[in-house]
Each structure stands twice: as C-alpha cells, then as structure tokens.
Design goal:
The complex is a heterodimer.
Chain A: H1 11-15, E1 20-25, H2 29-38, E2 47-52, H3 60-68, E3 73-78, H4 89-106, E4 114-118, H5 124-141, H6 150-154
Parallel strand pairs in A: 1-2, 1-3, 3-4
Helix pairs in contact in A: 2-5
Chain B: E1 4-9, H1 15-21, H2 26-33, E2 35-38, H3 47-51, E3 58-64, E4 67-69, H4 70-82, E5 83-89, H5 91-95, H6 107-117, E6 132-135, E7 138-141, E8 145-150, E9 160-162, H7 169-181, H8 197-200, H9 249-252, H10 270-279, H11 287-294, H12 300-304
Parallel strand pairs in B: 1-2, 1-3, 3-5, 5-9
Antiparallel strand pairs in B: 4-8, 6-7
Chain lengths: 159, 323
C-alpha cells in the first residue's frame, strides 16, 4: 500500500521498504519457504532468509547484530512445539525470545519488529501470510533508524 | 630512573581508586618500582604538569571510568599522547560500566532527572548546567555533557584492559609486574584469565548437570545457602557468561555474579550472551509458564547490560523515529 505510507508526502516515507532478516530452521520453516516457492505463492520480497540448523541456534547476538547492521525487523522460524529435530531447540528459542523481546523494548525497538513463529514444512501458505503480515507491520512502523545521535558527533573534541 | 605511571578517573564512582589503595602494603612495592606522576584522587599534580611532560614519557596510564564529558575526553587524549601504554582500568573504562546504562535515556532526560525532577533537588528556576557562566566579570567554563556515554576504547586507542567493578588488587599487581618485566601479552588483551567464572567457582561441584529454574529470585527474596550453586537456588547468577579471574569474590560473599568482568574472548556481546545463557535455564516448555518465570527478571537491559551497554551492538536506546 504505497499510498497509505505517504500521507504526509515525505519522499523517504514513501520509498521505505523494510528489510527483514529471517532465521529459518533447516527442518521446518526453511522447507516451508521452499514449498511456498515451488507452489508459486507470492509474498513480499523484503525478507532475507538465513538458514540455520535449528531455531535454537539463533543466538540473541545474531538478532542484535542484525538490527545494528540495518535490519528493520527480525523473524525467527522454527518447528512447532514437540516437533524439534533436536528435541528441545525450539523451546530454548522460545525462552530466549520472550526475554530478548522485552530487552529490545527497553532499547526502543518495538516488539512488532521481532517475531518468533512456528511454521512446519507443510505450511507454505502460513509462511506467506506471516511474512506479508510482518512486512506490513514493520512498514507501518518505519525504519529502525539506529544511528548514533548527531549531537555526539557535533560535540566531538579534536585532540 | 624509575618508570612513570599515571592514574586517572573519568565517569566513575571511585571504587577503582579503592582497588589501588587496596594493594595495602603492596603499594609500597609499587611505589618503590615506579614513580606515580599523576593521580588526582591522591596526589597534587595538575593537568598542566602532565601537559608539560614530553610525549611518550609516561610508561603506563591506568584510566578508569567511562567517557561522558568533554573534559574526560580531553584528558583521555592527553594521557594517550603522554603514555606509551594505556590501560582501561575497570568495567567503566573497559565497556562503559554502570554509567553506560544512562544510554537508555537521552541527554535531556538525564539532566532533567538530575537537576529538576529528583525529589531531593531544590531548583525552583529549573537551572541546568551551562558550559559558560559569567561570575563577577569572569567567565567560568564547565565541560560539555555529551549525548552518550562511551567506553575508553571508543575515544582513544587502548592497549590493555583490566576488567572488574572494581578490578581486584591482584590483577593490578600482576599488571604492574608484567609492565615492569616487559612480559605483556599481545596488544589488546584483557589482563585476566579467559575462562568463565563457573569454572573457578568454589561451588562448582554443586551445579547440577541440567538447570531448570522454576522461579528467579532476587537476593533479598531468598535465604541463600552458602555451599550450593546460586543458580540452583534460583538466583540470577551470571557466572556462566562472565569472565573469571575475580577470585569469585561476590560468590564468597554469598551474592550472585552480576557480570562485571565482562565476556570471555569468544563472545562478541556480553549482554545478549548472558541473556541467552539465563533464559535457556527457564525450567518450562509451556509458553505461559515461561512468561510467568521470566517476569521475575523485571529489567533485562539493566541486568544483562549492567556493565557493557555502550559497547553493545545497540549501544543506546534508539532515538524515536523522525516524524
């Protein structure tokens, strides 16, 4: 909805395309993305997928680094509870997710920018829906814009 | 001639100075071996005395505290010029420390909280610190208060760091000994062991193979047993994620580790890694139950970034998006 994102006529707002970094687990969500592809389901091209062996492999450092390096949103996709290829990996992801999400809020990163979803290998349609929904939510929030405060640079003391 | 050593403090509480004093009688060995040419907290040398020294004439400068003001930044640059080796001394200089948590707020709210809103402040006109102020025909100058807190290495090149809030006297004595004998490790090294605190913890044997915490407790909410792993008792101890070398002093005082020694060399970001380590120990697979258990960690940023926010991937609360 380009017209909805540019009500104030700002060029930057109209041109904003969110960048979403997605960590998909090898056994479920990545296969769902494959299925969406082979089923020719169309979904927003804003997602950069990183395949990991398990959602439990997603270190919170990866998430912070993604935000620090320009991601406007981070999506983690794993197997449904009980379906983890490694038994417990997705539960670990779930525990970390809830604490990290709260910490991100303290850093001024809105909770909508960070999402954990269970998507099995057969749920290509669900993958499409989740990605599209997240892209629209992040688009509405605008860029994450995490640059150093300009005042710091102005005040820098030349030795 | 004895090698010259300087100590300086920036945004800090004075605890790192205390670590020097805590050398106790060993301080005599230190002063026998080196000349202390600058130490504002204890000796009456002035900035102009340092400025008058030839560049590179100080063997080592131990700088503690984070960098918040223009004065601290100028002093860091000055000491960098005069010293051959600069050592970030203590958590604040190394990674920003407790003052670094102010990066969760912008400059205006920090000044407002300190000078206008705090209940003990009497400031009816709402005056804030000014960088220039005329008094009796003279112009007084105060340092600029920067937007953010930075670690020392974000301001000047740092050769070594000594972790801790504060560092232990032993680490300081070891560093001075290494300096005197020229047995310093590779530049950039942290002058402390590179293994997790759990490995040197006196309660190590009581740590269960698999921890599943049902309730996180804060120290005042528990009767803490003195011989059992603190995590096993539900206390939020950051030992698994924190560098050792502190002689487990807090643990010996029956208090959980708060992470002041920072990360080991294998970790990029202490806060995220510590959060990961602790969250993984939540003893449930049920989402509602997980949320209930994690509720007892009310301030994740303050807990996991207590000493290292300015060097984190997201080093401050982000500015609100421009409207």
């Amino acid at each position: 909805m380009p017209e909805a994102s540019a009500p104030n006529g700002q060029f930057e707002a109209a041109a904003f395309e969110p960048k979403i970094v997605a960590f998909f687990c090898n056994w479920c969500t990545y296969l769902a993305a494959d299925l969406a592809g082979t089923s020719r389901l169309r979904y927003a091209p804003n997602v950069r997928v990183v395949r990991v062996m398990c959602s439990g492999r997603v270190d919170p450092q990866f998430v912070l680094e993604a935000f620090a390096q320009g991601a406007d949103g981070v999506l983690i996709g794993g197997c449904h509870p009980g379906d983890c290829h490694y038994q417990e990996g997705n539960y670990k992801a779930l525990r970390r997710y809830h604490l990290l999400r709260r910490m991100l809020e303290q850093m001024g990163v809105e909770p909508e920018r960070f999402r954990l979803e269970w998507i099995s290998a057969s749920e290509g349609e669900r993958l499409r829906a989740v990605v599209n929904d997240m892209v629209e939510q992040v688009r509405a929030l605008g860029p994450l814009n995490n640059r150093p405060a300009p005042q710091l640079l102005e005040e820098a003391v030349v030795p | 001639m004895k090698p010259k050593v300087a100590f300086y403090w920036c945004a800090s509480c004075g605890g790192c100075e205390e670590a020097v004093v805590d050398l106790a009688e060993k301080v005599l060995d230190v002063t026998a071996a080196v000349d202390i040419v600058f130490w504002p907290v204890a000796l009456d040398f002035k900035r102009k005395d340092v400025e008058a020294m030839p560049d590179g004439s100080i063997a080592a400068a131990f700088i503690n505290g984070a960098i918040r003001t223009s004065e601290q930044e100028e002093m860091a640059h000055l000491l960098r010029r005069k010293a051959q080796v600069v050592i970030a001394f203590g958590a604040c200089a190394q990674t920003g420390g407790v003052p670094g948590l102010a990066n969760l707020y912008d400059r205006a709210s920090v000044l407002a909280a300190a000078y206008r809103e705090s209940p003990s402040t009497a400031n009816a006109e709402g005056v804030l610190p000014q960088t220039h102020y005329p008094v009796n025909g003279e112009a007084l100058e105060l340092p600029v208060f920067h937007e953010r807190v930075r670690a020392l290495e974000q301001v000047i090149p740092v050769d070594y760091s000594i972790p801790g809030c504060p560092p232990t006297p032993k680490l300081l004595a070891d560093a001075v000994a290494a300096l005197l004998t020229g047995r310093l490790p590779e530049r950039g090294a942290v002058l402390a062991p590179d293994k997790a605190l759990c490995e040197e913890c006196p309660r190590r044997d009581s740590k269960p193979e698999k921890l599943a915490i049902q309730q996180f407790k804060r120290p005042h909410e528990a009767l803490i047993e003195t011989d059992t792993c603190l995590l096993a008792q539900g206390l939020l101890c950051l030992g698994p994620a924190t560098r050792g070398g502190c002689e487990a002093r807090c643990i010996q005082g029956n208090m959980p580790c708060t992470g002041c020694f920072g990360a080991t060399s294998r970790v990029r970001d202490f806060g995220a890694k510590a959060l990961s380590a602790i969250a993984s120990l939540t003893g449930s697979n049920d989402e509602a139950e997980i949320l209930r258990i994690l509720e007892n960690i009310p301030d994740p940023a303050g807990t996991f970034y207590r000493y290292s926010l300015p060097v984190a991937p997201l080093p401050a609360r982000r500015a609100p998006a421009a409207q």
